Amino acid sequence: MKAACKMVKYYLSQYKFLCIAATNETEIAQAQALLDWLRKNLQPGDGFATDRVLQFGPVAARRSKALDRQLAVLMQYGWVHELPAGTKIDGKKRRKAFRLSPKA
Q1: b or e along 3-27 (b: 16 or more beta carbons within 10 Å of the residue's beta carbon)?
Q2: N or C: which end of the chain has fewer CB within 10 A?
């Protein structure tokens, strides 16, 4: 029963994501491109800093404000989690650090 509830929650979150995507296609499409890039370049559960995405990420995510909006969308749906300021990523303390969700 617990596993079934988890599965239902997952599919409901996907349904919600798709419903919003239908109303705000550009922002959701850019967030999806960022998620695809993160999945390709990181393992689920890995931490990352925004400077890596700004330098190597999808073109639409290479501006700080655009990246912040895309990360907000991904956080809203649980694909990315914000880490506390000062978290070490690649051996450096970061002001902005995130973790790709294990379900990604």
Answers
A1: eeeeeeeeeeeeeebeeeeeeeeeb
A2: N
State pTM to two decimals.
Answer: 0.73
Architecture of domain 2-100: Orthogonal Bundle (1.10)
Residue-wise pLDDT for 19-64, tens only, equals 766 666 788 889 999 999 999 999 998 999 999 899 999 998 999 9
* Cβ count near 47 (within 10 Å): 16
